[in-house]
Amino acid sequence: MTTAHSAPLTAQLNDREMPAWWRQAVVYQVYPRSFEDADGDGIGDIRGVTSRVPYLKELGIDAVWLSPFYPSALADGGYDVADYRNVDPRLGTLDDFDEMLGALHAAGIRVIVDIVPNHTSDQHAWFQEALTAGRGSAARARYIFRDGTGPDGSEPPADWVSVFGGSAWQRVDDGQWYFHNFAVEQPDLDWSNPEVRADFVKTLRFWSDRGVDGFRIDVAHMLTKDFVDPLPSQAELDAMPRDGNHPMIDRDDVHEVYAEWRAVFDSYDPPRTAVAEAWVEPSRIPLYARAESLGQAFNFDLLEADFDARQFRRIVGDNLELAGTSGSSTTWVLSNHDVVRHATRYGLPDAERDSAGRPTRKHGNEWLLSGGTRPALDAERGSRRARAAALFVLALPGSAYIYQGEELGLHEVAAIPEADRQDPTFFRSPGEDIGRDGCRVPLPWSEDGPSFGFGTGGAHLPQPGWFADYAVSAQHDDSTSSLALYRAALAMRRLLQTDESLTWVETGHDDVLAFRRSNGWTVFTNFGTEPFELPDGPPISLSSRHRDERILPGETTVWIAGA
Ligand code: GLC
Question: Which ligand 1 atom minimizes the distance to the CA of 79?
Fold first, then answer.
């Protein structure tokens, strides 16, 4: 292990007067196993990330968020962590990590790592110990073990269904059952156990001491539980209000954990940051985003929205208001490793919604069901709208999260043979959920060569032939490419990061949204298909489609400086 830990970037840049670097940062999500494979074993790795630092610097991002790179049996793409303070040997070593951190910092890019505190892997030393130590042991008390029901205890303690489908309880050899909110291989920890709490503090310090700048907290709203006998049924759980007292979702007492973490974050200079993945009622998001808690929380509303002016305007308004309540900044996310890529979502029919606008059927997520209908995809339209949506959100106040490959305009890969699929959601809900593998296919770096430049050892999820058209090499020098658009937008965005307000400009057209930032820039997005005549004013600085035209075509965004 090296001792030459990388100094945190803020210290290197001596910009302590700007401690809240994250408030309007552009954060690029790296899914390490699918980014770049430096050692040719078919799996992306840490040295692969290091080798692409020049690409990331040229793109113009402020930070990288690394999805889990820890030792893992990959039952859930690395979100089943076997050791929180190490690197998966297939991905490298701690020395490789330090080298990557140093290279990113030297390029002016901060680093956020993913912490998965709700559950461990069943391969984690603690869980293995719990299995052998037996019932009533201190080792089992780190997890949630119960006796079964029925005359011989052979029925699960409750009829609860896991997030990935199937029972949320699994029986072990001596007859007891353990609770797993996600896959069977992801036993939930018992967060009322002080040993569990102390160990995660150790993990946060471990990575903070190495120089990481922040943390993304996986399912931050599920850690604490209150399972009182007799356990409620699934139907009863579903009917309970999520008001802070629900037995397992978004409990108020989870913030005791984060208050302790906040003290850890603030003990560093500069303070480490955190962003919560919390799927909670909107009114409760500020609890996670408060400075006393994790400090920022994801806003996932755009993952569920259609490409629709009314929906976008409501979502922007709601989330800026929520950010005002917490004192944090909001986060804009169009794609991540859990959803169908937005270029594809926007090329599918709109979701079916209830009267409150909530999706009842999400065509994007149900796309290409093995047994069901297959809505037609208009890929070109999806690409056009994806560029317009990206330019819209990149001009908003708050931080923007880009998922690897989104800058290339990548579409979802639908045609993955069943034998190659990896995602547990596919296997635990056969025929109901296609799973998340389609957005996790290794990136195309070059138009030809093995694995489109991903590595020499093949790709762990099959890449389709059309990936060549989206390769970095095909786009790098093409000023009309998606990559060029993202690079230009990120460079210009620096001028927008002044304050965190916007003013809506009424356009008189339901399908056209416009807003002004305090530096005088105006952004117009035409969500419809009818062309819209832009008002007279300064020339267009950036367009998702055409340059310097006063007619804004459908499904297009433009930025106008100083209008
Ligand atoms: C989060 C992750 C997802 C993972 C789940 C369980 O939602 O984003 O990929 O499967 O947590 O850890």
Answer: 12
pLDDT in tens, 341-387: 999 999 998 888 888 778 877 776 666 544 455 678 899 999 999 99
Separation in Å, CA 289 to CA 361, 437, 548: 29, 30, 40
Q: Is the pLDDT of residue 179 over 70?
A: yes
Name beta bridge partners: 400.
Answer: 26, 332
User: Token pair for residue 233?
Assistant: 């049924």
The type of residue at 381 is R
Check pocket membership of 338 for ligand 1, CB cut-off 6 A: yes
Q: What is the mean pLDDT of residues 286-291?
A: 97
Give the number of the atom of ligand 1 that is nearest the alpha carbon of residue 116.
Answer: 12
> Please, which pLDDT band fits residue 497 given cuts at 50, 70 and 90?
confident
Q: Residues with Cβ < 8 Å from 243, sequence gap 6 or more? A: none
Q: Which residues contact 75 (CB under 8 A, 6 or more apart)?
A: 121, 122, 183, 184, 185, 186, 424
**Contact yes or no for 507/515 (Cβ under 8 A):** no
Ligand 1 atom nearest to CA at 338: 9
What is the DSSP-derived secondary structure letter of residue 190? Answer: -
**CA 67 to ligand 1 centroid distance, Å:** 10
Model-level pTM?
0.95
Strand arrangement, sheet containing 110-115: 273-276, 214-217, 110-115, 63-66, 26-30, 399-403, 331-333
Which atom of ligand 1 sits closest to the CA of residue 425?
10
Q: What is d(CA 262, CA 295) in angstroms, rounded to the nearest whole number?
A: 8
The CB of 83 under 6 Å from ligand 1? The reply is: no
Q: What pairs with residue 515 in β-bridges?
A: 504, 523
Q: Which whole number is the average pLDDT over 495-504?
A: 88
Q: Is 179 in the pocket of ligand 1 (CB under 6 A)?
A: no
Domains and CATH numbers, the chain: 21-119+195-357+377-413+455-493 (3.20.20.80), 125-179 (3.90.400.10), 503-560 (2.60.40.1180)
Check pocket membership of 300 for ligand 1, CB cut-off 6 A.
no
How many angstroms separate the alpha carbon of residue 97 from the centre of ligand 1? 22
Least confident range from 3-12, 93-102, 217-226, 530-539: namely 3-12
Q: What gap in Å lies between CA 438 and CA 48, rounded to an integer?
A: 21
Query: Is there an atom of ligand 1 within 6 Å of 219 CB?
Result: yes
pLDDT, tens only, 180-215: 999 999 999 999 999 999 999 999 999 999 999 999
Residue nearest to atom 6 of ligand 1 (CA): 79
How far apart are the C-alpha atoms of 48 and 36, rounded to whole Å? 5
Residue (of 327, 336, 101) closest to 214 by Cα position: 101
Atom of ligand 1 nearest to the CA of 424: 10
